[in-house]
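quick one, 245 residues, struct below
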Amino acid sequence: MGHLSLLRSRILLTELGDELARATQREEDLIATVSHELRTPVAAIQGYLELLAEEEQLAAYARLVEPIQRNGERLIRMVDHLLTGTRPAHAPTELHRTPVDLAMVVEAAWRACRTLAEQRAVALTSVPTPAQVVVRADVTQLTHAVQQLIRNAVLFTPAGGGVTVSIAGGPVPTVEIADTGEGIPADELPYVFQRFYRGRYARQQAVPGVGLGLHIARQAATAHGGTVTLSSGPTGTTARLAIGG
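---
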């Protein structure tokens, strides 16, 4: 009886695993299809808007064209974000590693998030690094990962709060992003790196995003042989991106 029960459990687990794999594949296919169907028409709209913006006769309507362009670019960024965040875990990540000053990576990511911080009345500070920290990394991917962590910190920090970005050298170079936000409840910490996960605060406060930022940052860190870790209390969260060899 025990042997039969164990055999039945194994069969059920196998079937569950197969169904989970099929569900994951359906999710990836759906996202790829939706992303393509969104990106193609939006890209066409952006092209026509650029032509309209160049027409001197339509200069009076520039104030109407500009917000359409801005929101079109926002849609394209979201589609790219979806495609990056839903990349299959088994798919190889192509890295073009070169020696790079980590301060330059942080500076680029900080600048990309500065406008968002200003809009949300959040003080975004980058702490100068006393000594140069050089790492071998794919500049584009690493910058994008740091940007995701800074953006996440800004979005979860109420107006009047602050986000501080700093670099620690040593055997394992690390970028640290500390905020003065609400903090992550202990029961949510194990899930925050999952795709599309949005905690209670994100849902209640309608924080922009689809729950992929931390997942994308961890993907990039893992590809570089590093890690992304979070520590959080009642007020404030600190994200650390460590870069491996």
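The beta strands are 98-101, 123-126, 134-137, 162-168, 174-179, 227-232, 237-242.
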